[in-house]
Amino acid sequence: MPSPVFLLLGVPESGTYSLADALVRSGAVLAGPPAGDPASVSQHALAACGMRWDSLAPMPAKLAKAPGLDAARAALDTFLEHSPAESPLVVAEPLATRIVGLWRERLEAAERPLCAVLWLTHPGSAAAALARRRQFAPEKSLALWLAHLVEFEHATRGLPRTIVTEESFVADPAGGMKRIAQATRFPPAAAAAKSPAAARQASIVAPPLGLGSGLDTALDTGYRKLASTVSGELKRAVEALATTARPAAQSAVPPWLAQEIEADRLRMQALADMAAGHAARADRAQRDLAAAPRDARALAGQVESLRDEQAREREALTAQIERLRSEQTTERDGLTAQLERLRGEQAQERDALTEALASTRAELARITAALAEVPGNEAAIRGELGQAQRELSDERSSIMKLTEALETARRDADGHAHRFESARHHLERFAVEIEEARAALAAREDFCARLASEADALRVREAQLVDEREALRRERDQAARALDRERRERGQSDEERGTAQHRSTAEFRSTIGTLEHTLAERDSHIAALSAEADRMADAITEAAVRIGGLEEQLELRTAELAALQAKHDALAESLRALQSKSLVRAARWLGGERAANSGGG
Question: Cβ(40)–Cβ(78) under 8 Å?
Answer without folding.
Answer: no
